[in-house]
Structures are given as C-alpha cells and as structure tokens.
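Bench log. Compound arrived from synthesis this morning; before running ITC I wanted a structural hypothesis for how dinuclear copper ion sits in the protein. Inputs:
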Amino acid sequence: MSTWANLGLQDSASPLMEQLIFFHDHALLILVMITVLVGYLMFMLFFNSYINRFLLHGQLIEMIWTILPAIILLFIAFPSLRLLYLLDEINEPSVTLKSIGHQWYWSYEYSDFNDIEFDSYMIPTNELENDGFRLLDVDNRIILPMNSQIRILVTAADVIHSWTVPALGVKVDGTPGRLNQTNFFMNRPGLFYGQCSEICGANHSFMPIVIESVPVNYFIKGISSNMNS
Ligand code: CUA
C-alpha cells in the first residue's frame, strides 16, 4: 500500500512484478559495469601520451571487442525473453475481470458473477476525504481475491487507453475493437493503485485504477451481496 512521502512506485505485490524487479536489477548491474569500464578507459586516454607510428591494425583486439559485447547482450536478451513469455502465460484463472477504458474513466465487468458491472471515476480533489490520495482514489474500487490467479480482459470504447498497475507488473493497452488479455496473482492484501498510461486526451491523467486485494472469503461475501443489484 502507498504511504505518505512515498515518491517511488508501490512495492511489488505479485510474483511477476518480483521477477521484473530482479531483471531490472540484473540489467542495471551489467549497465553499471559497462559504464565504469568505458568511463575508466576514456579517462585514462585523456591523460596519456603513448604514440605508435606503426600501429595500423589489430585483428585480435577487434575480434575481442566485437564478440564480447555480443555475448554480454545475450546475458540480457535471454532473461528478457524468459520474462516476456512468463508474462503471457495464463494459468487457469479463477476470476475474470473485464475493464473498458472510456474518456475518461474505467468501467468494469465481473462476467463470472451474474453480470456485475460498474463505472470507476476518480474522486475530485475538493471531494477527497482526509485519508484519500489526490488524483489516485476512485469512487468504485475493483475488489479481487488475493492468492488467486486473476485474468483481466482490457478493451476501450473510444480511444486507446492503457490499464497499468505497477505493483502487479501489469500494463495492457485497451484498444477499441480489440480484446487484450493478461493475468496476475496478488500475494498480499492491500490497495494497489494504477493509472492510464496511454495518452488518451485532455483528462488522461485523471482516470486512475484502484484494486482492493482481499482474502478469498471476503471477496465471495462481497460479490454475493452485490448480486442482482
Ligand atoms: Cu485513458 Cu490515458
């Protein structure tokens, strides 16, 4: 959950986001090593005066500094591909949520349960409660069970939107006329915030997403009290 003075993104709440963070750290470490090495070499070149009039070619060093970067890139490419395919894997979801982007709000449908559907608007700053998050809280939250595979279907009604929740490692475009699919698994309860991240018009910044992750029995209770409403 977000707390005050929390400037970065929310902590990870799903195994896929955990893997994404591991991959980020791995790539960053390689990047730092390359930057330090190249920085060191450039620095030393400025402060030496070695000259060799007969140096015209160096086959061996050319071989090394061509092949070595290619091998280093493989160490980024393979884990990246592994994650890419892992993100696309759907493992028998227990709940399906459909989210539809509109200018400028999200609407949701729990198609599994007797057609529960609702709109989710941002709460304007002047109507915010004292404990609310400005530009981030909504009037109707998505309630979903923790420790369950959840499938989301994303689409849009007018222009392209993007359903993005950093804590879950989810970022899917909602495109008119198309239905995109992804899935996630929440490993703890809490409130997970997201925002639209496809420039979709004047109020693009004002269509946030709030997911309330609750234990499964709470979810069933909540869903059954909303039936036939
Ligand atoms: Cu919807 Cu940006």
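What the model suggests: The pocket of dinuclear copper ion is lined by residues 101, 104, 161, 196, 198-200, 204, 207 (CB under 6 Å). Residues 95-227 form a domain with the Immunoglobulin-like fold (CATH 2.60.40.420).
ITC booked for Thursday regardless.
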